[in-house]
Amino acid sequence: MIRAALVLITVLLVGACTQADQWTLAFRAAPSDAPWQFSEVAGHYHSLEQCQAKGDGLVRLGGDKGQYLCAQQCEAQQGELSCALLAPSTSSPIAQESQ
Fold first, then answer.
1. Separation between Cα atoms, residue 95 and residue 99, nearest integer Å
2. Phi, psi (deg, nearest 5) at residue 78
3. Got the DSSP string for 27-69?
4. What pairs with residue 87 in β-bridges?
C-alpha cells in the first residue's frame, strides 16, 4: 500500500512538470546562477502573461530580491529542472532592454 502511494506521488510530481502547452513557474527568494531545481517550481499557468504576472508578484513580495523563470516542456532530471522553452522574466535586464 505504501509503495503504491509512493509510485502515485512520484508520477504526479513528474507529470506536473510535463503538462503540454502550460507554463511552469520556478521561483527562488535570492538570485542565483545555480541550475533551477524541481523543488523551486511554484505553479503552472495557461499563458506566459499569467506566469510572468505571478513571478513578478512573488518578486515584489520578497522585497524585489527574488528571481523567477517561466518555461514550457519542463522535466525533473535528478532534482534539476530541464525545460525546452525559456522566457525571460519581465523584470530581467534582458526583457527591459528589448522594451
1. 7
2. 55, 45
3. EESS---SPPBGGGEEEEESSHHHHHHHHHHHHHHTTS--EEE
4. 70
Indicate the number of domains in the chain: 1
Query: Which residues of the chain carry a pLDDT beneath 70?
Result: 1-20, 91-99
Residue 71 forms beta bridges with which residues?
24, 86
Q: Can you give the pLDDT at residue 21?
A: 81
DSSP 30: S
**Amino acid identity for residue 29 in this structure:** A
Q: Which domain holds residue 25?
A: 20-97
For residue 27, being part of any structural domain is answered with yes
What's the pLDDT tens digit per position in 47-62?
999 999 999 999 999 9
